[in-house]
Structure formats: structure tokens, C-alpha cells
Amino acid sequence: MRFSTSLYLPPMPSPHIAPVSTTLPSSAAGAATASKALFWNRIAARYAAAPIADMGGYETTLRRVQGLLSTTHDVLEIGCGTGSTALRLAPFTRRLLATDVSSEMIAIARQRLAGQPSPQLSFAVADAEATAFGQRAYDVVLAFNLPHRARALDVALTQVAQALRPGGLLISKTPCIAEMNPLIAYLAVPLLRASGIVPRVLCLNQQRLQSAMVQQGMQIVCAERHGTRGKDFRAFMVARKPG
User: Fold this and answer.
1) pLDDT digits over 181-217, tens only?
2) Which of 108, 189, 218, 239 has the greatest number of beta carbons closer than 10 A?
3) Residue (of 24, 54, 51) closest to 36 by Cα position
């Protein structure tokens, strides 16, 4: 998914991805996935048309990620949105599978791919918290603008850790809402969520994100901020799965 200050804040066949059990009963997990998909399907066209709020910060992040990728890497992106970032990064990989819970987002992404063919890239509909992406199947997992929207952060990170090969990298960038003005984090966000304007989000800070990754056995490689417009609440983080 594109990096944003918003709280919404020949292509090869996709590998088999199948539902797995989580801490939620299967019926509850299915309902939660459907609810997320409904929200993002509803706003997909508007999201695709919205400009990137901080283009300078976005380009800085892209350059950092490109420097961490290799054409020997198999890469998974979770929460890819309409695919604009995946299209920029795919040429730097051997294979990039970009996924999103929203079928409407993926439909737009595939339209973009048709207009800008990239043999390394394929798109698939999948919920990052309720999908098995394979054991040790990827060298890199990308999670942009996603961790703060997880139903359960530990479940999402467990999926990532299982999908990564030893020595593999989790590269993420997400708003740290708990670092914002408390009126935004604890008043505006709940009101917007109750009105259906924004989805459920977690009020995280960088320390909480780092701790959650470390609890999954990952080693923090770097934590940076790339914003060019005042204080940047979006933490860019890289974590490595031990080899």
C-alpha cells in the first residue's frame, strides 16, 4: 500500500495461500476479514485517486527499500492497496507477490499492472492475519501502512515470521498514532471510527512496534523517519529473522 500520512492511515501464477487458524474462532476471523474487506472495497477508487501527502518522504523510503532488495529475493507485500508501491519495487526483486484484503484494491492494482507490465509482479486477495503464505517462503516481507491496522499485531507478526526465511527482512512503515496529539489518538480517531470514516486502528508507538517484533524473535536493524514536512509520525523499521 502507498505510504501516506492518512490513517487508512508476464505475471507468474500466485502461490497457494490458504486460511489458517488464529486466536479468534474461525467464524469470528471470517467476519473480521469480511468487515475489513467491505470497508476498503468501499473506498478503493477514492484511495487510488488520492495524492501522496509527503512525496519527498515517500521517495526517500522507496530508495531505502530498493537498497535492501535484490534480484535474488522472493518478496511478499501484505496490505499492498492499489499496487503503486509494488509496481515501483518489483524490478528490484526476483519475484514479488503483493496482497491485500480488498478485492477492489487488487482489481485496480491488476489494471495498473496491465498498463505497466512487470514480469516479477503478481497480485492476490489475502488477509495478512488469516492467510498462510508458506513456511520460509520469502526473503523479504513488506508491510507499509499496515501494522497499525492489524486486528491483533502479534498474529500478523507471527504470520510474517513464519513466511520469512532465516536471515529474511521485515520492512515496514506505519503511523505511530500514540505519538500524535492525544486529542487525535484518543478522541478524533474513535469518533471517526464510530462514524465509519476510518477503520479500526491500533494506537502504537515506535517502542511498542519494536517490542512486538522482538517478541517474535526478530532483530531490529534500523528505525528511521523519512518525513519532509515537520514531525514525522510514520516509523520506517527493518527487522531481521535470525539465520
Assistant:
1) 877 767 776 676 676 666 677 788 999 999 999 999 9
2) 239
3) 24
